[in-house]
Write a structure and sequence with these properties.
Strand content: 15-25%
Number of strands: 10
Number of helices: 6
Order of helices and strands: HEEHEEHHEEHEEEEH
Largest sheet: 2 strands, antiparallel
Structural class: alpha+beta
Distance between the termini: 43 Å
Helix content: 40-55%
Strand order of the largest sheet: 1-2
Radius of gyration: 25 Å
């Protein structure tokens, strides 16, 4: 067991059923004080070992990311070559679809208007399946357009730690997990000019600023450019 809550539950069950526990060092009876104490220490050491292993793995990932060498799941339009360098995809259809989003956002100034425009023209957008890594095509939607506009990889930047996992209990006691995007100054790693991009970093920054300007303001403010939109662009 690597989790003390599971381990002590097992010890209680074995003590109630008069069951012995054995390992390479000996045989123990959880109902006995001394044996219970030894088993408890073994469980604590095992849990601490797991924590150390996880910490070392995390530090290894962060060190590799700091050098821009960590292999990440790339968005549609970017691929790895044989030497693990990030390149613009050779698939012309995917390249054109990605560039179309940036061109229309530059013209229309709104992610939602880009979605309306793409759907009116019957244009589909590529998405990379995280599990298989394959490219699939689907009708243009707000999440797809928004993800393209805010992904720094399209500006040639390597970014790591852009989001944070948060957990909390709801009213029924269920653990709720969600991903929260972090502002750039809180990203763990940001390496501009890491690989070829579709747009410049200045254009990317301008797009982020425009998306933020389109988001609804707090109650009592003047509202977003399009007040009828219930959701933020960023």
């Amino acid at each position: 067991a690597r989790n003390n809550s599971d381990w002590y539950r097992l010890l209680d069950l074995c003590a109630l059923t008069d069951t012995l526990i054995a390992d390479a060092d000996g045989v123990y009876h959880p109902a006995g004080y001394n044996d219970r104490l030894v088993l408890g220490l073994k469980g604590t050491l095992s849990e601490a070992e797991l924590h150390l292993l996880r910490s070392r793995m995390t530090e290894g990932l962060r060190a590799k990311a700091a050098r821009g060498e960590l292999r990440l799941v790339l968005p549609a339009g970017l691929d790895y070559d044989d030497d693990d360098h990030v390149i613009i995809t050779p698939d012309e259809a995917v390249r054109e679809a990605v560039m179309c989003v940036f061109r229309r956002f530059d013209q229309l100034g709104s992610a939602r208007q880009v979605v309306v425009s793409l759907r009116a023209d019957g244009l589909r957008l590529p998405r990379r399946d995280i599990r298989t890594g394959k490219i699939t095509w689907a009708q243009a939607g707000y999440p797809a357009v928004h993800d393209i506009l805010i992904h720094p990889g399209y500006a040639g930047a390597f970014a790591y730690g852009r989001s944070k996992t948060e957990k909390h209990l709801d009213a029924s006691g269920t653990v709720i997990t969600r991903q929260r995007r972090l502002p750039r100054d809180q990203w763990a790693v940001m390496i501009p000019g890491h690989h070829p991009g579709y747009i410049s970093l200045d254009t990317y920054d301008a797009s982020i600023a425009r998306l933020a300007a389109n988001s609804p303001r707090p109650a009592g403010g003047a509202g977003a450019r399009h007040r009828q939109r219930p959701h933020a662009d960023l």
